[in-house]
Specification:
Number of domains: 1
Largest sheet: 4 strands, antiparallel
Shape: globular
Order of helices and strands: EHHEHHEHHEH
Number of strands: 4
Distance between the termini: 38 Å
CATH architecture: 2-Layer Sandwich
Helix content: 25-40%
Radius of gyration: 14 Å
CATH superfamily: Nucleoside diphosphate kinase-like domain
CATH class: Alpha Beta
Strand order of the largest sheet: 2-3-1-4
Length: 141
C-alpha cells in the first residue's frame, strides 16, 4: 500500500452551488482520509502561484479571475494511491466530456467551472497545499 497525499480544491462554482457536502461525501465514501479542510478566499497573488504552470496560456487571466471571485474549500486527503484515485473520481477537466459518476461528469458542463481542482502529482500536491493552507493567502482571515 502506497499512502499518498492529494490536494482537492472545491472551486468557486462548487461552493456557490452548494456542492461542498457532496464532494466531501464522495471523498469519505471512497475511503480517503481528510487531513486538513479549510474554506478560504484566495488572494490573486496566491492563485497566480497555484496556477503558475498555466501562466501565458490564453485562459490564464480568466482562470485567475474566476478563482478569486468567491471562496473555495481546500481539502488535503491521504490514501492508497490518493492522486490516481482522486483524479479518477473527479474525471477529465472538461466537464462536458467527463463520464457520469465522476464529480465533473455529474455536476459540470464547462472546462473552467468544473467544480474541483486536484493536483496531478505528489510534488504539485505538496506545493499547492503549502499555498492554500498558508494563512497569508486567505483574504477571509
Amino acid at each position: 500500500m502506497a499512502l499518498k497525499r492529494e490536494l482537492i480544491i472545491i472551486k468557486p462554482d462548487g461552493v456557490r452551488r452548494g456542492l461542498i457536502g457532496e464532494v466531501i461525501k464522495r471523498i469519505e465514501q471512497k475511503g480517503l482520509k481528510i487531513l486538513k479542510l479549510k474554506m478560504l478566499k484566495m488572494s490573486r497573488e496566491c492563485v497566480e502561484r497555484l496556477y503558475d504552470v498555466h501562466k501565458g496560456k490564453p485562459f490564464y487571466e480568466s482562470l485567475i479571475n474566476f478563482m478569486t471571485s468567491h471562496p473555495v474549500v481546500a481539502i488535503l486527503v491521504e490514501g492508497d494511491e490518493a492522486i490516481d484515485v482522486v483524479r479518477t473520481m473527479i474525471g477529465p477537466t472538461d466537464g462536458r466530456k467527463a463520464p457520469p459518476g465522476t464529480i465533473r461528469g455529474d455536476f459540470s458542463t464547462s472546462i473552467q467551472e468544473n467544480i474541483v481542482h486536484a493536483a496531478d502529482s505528489e510534488e504539485r500536491a505538496d506545493y499547492e497545499s503549502r499555498i492554500v493552507f498558508d494563512p497569508a493567502c486567505d483574504e477571509l482571515s
